[in-house]
Amino acid sequence: MTTIWERMAKEWRISKPKINKARLEEDIRGNLDNVMKTIEKSNSVPSVLDAINADADDDDW
């Protein structure tokens, strides 16, 4: 006599999704490329502070 948990485990093993490793690696690589492009475009905190402090006025603070 099988319990409901054993039946659920069996059904899960049958319907468990298969991972396409090639596609997963491609998606990760694409996401990393997007992150790197965003990082290259963005201003870092020191560069933003330099831009704020570069003007002659001290009214920024």
From TrEMBL:
Source species, domain of life: Bacteria
Name the record gives this protein: Uncharacterized protein
Organism of derivation: Bacillus mycoides
